[in-house]
Write a structure and sequence with these properties.
eight-stranded mixed beta sheet, single chain, alpha+beta, 26% strand
Length: 216
């Protein structure tokens, strides 16, 4: 298991949400990239040096510090979309190889390279920017149907990372809530919601959503 690339956003216009810019256009960078826990959500800060988000209401902050997507899943989407998808094409910071990102457990911890430890926090939820960026009508629905969302991660131990760094799973919690299961629960399969409130590593807003929908 390893990083194929570390990707940092290049700001560009965002006509799909009416915002001044978006950071979804991620490009692989050479050399080490510093990773640290960002400040609170609402500032635009994320975990990788040189990167940021512009939809500060929905993105960024400690629970969405780093976004990972598997190269194997990008390859599958290439076949369906009929076009090449470069590393970073889905707006991911980390393009991985050999790692089951969607099968990762919430709260699972990865050591990336010698220093950095990241913790799986929640799935990515697709939005209008993602659909507009890919220029694919109906993309939000198709991405949701596939339930291959990729994982947001918290920064537990900071440091530098770079392409080719190994990724080792150093902790797996004692539950069955994977990234894919949480995604399915909060999108199309509400019957799974009762399994979420007890998953302590989930962001509090998702746990509260699960509690409200379960008791409604």
């Amino acid at each position: 298991m390893k990083l194929l690339s570390v990707n940092v956003g290049k700001p560009r216009a965002n006509p799909w949400k009416g915002l001044s810019a978006t950071g979804i256009d991620k490009r692989p960078v050479e050399g080490p990239v510093a990773v640290a826990a960002p400040g609170p959500k609402g500032t635009g800060a994320v975990g990788l040096a040189g990167d940021r988000v512009y939809d500060v209401k929905h993105h960024g902050g400690p629970d969405q510090a780093v976004y990972a997507y598997a190269r194997e899943d990008l390859d599958g989407w290439e076949a369906e979309l009929g076009r090449p998808l470069a590393n970073g094409a889905f707006g991911e910071n980390l393009t991985t190889a050999g790692l089951d990102v969607n099968g990762a457990l919430i709260g699972e911890r990865w050591r990336v390279g010698p220093d950095v430890v990241l913790e799986v926090s929640c799935p990515r939820i697709p939005c209008a920017t993602f659909q507009g960026w890919l220029e694919r009508d109906g993309w939000i629905g198709r991405f949701t149907e596939a339930a291959l969302p990729g994982a947001y991660l918290r920064v537990i131990e900071p440091g530098d990372i770079r392409a080719t760094d190994p990724v080792d799973i150093v902790h797996r919690p004692d539950h069955e809530a994977t990234v894919a299961l949480v995604f399915r629960a909060v999108t199309r399969e509400p019957g799974l919601l009762p399994r979420l409130p007890a998953v302590g590593a989930l962001p509090e807003d998702i746990r509260e959503l699960a509690r409200r929908r379960t008791t409604a």
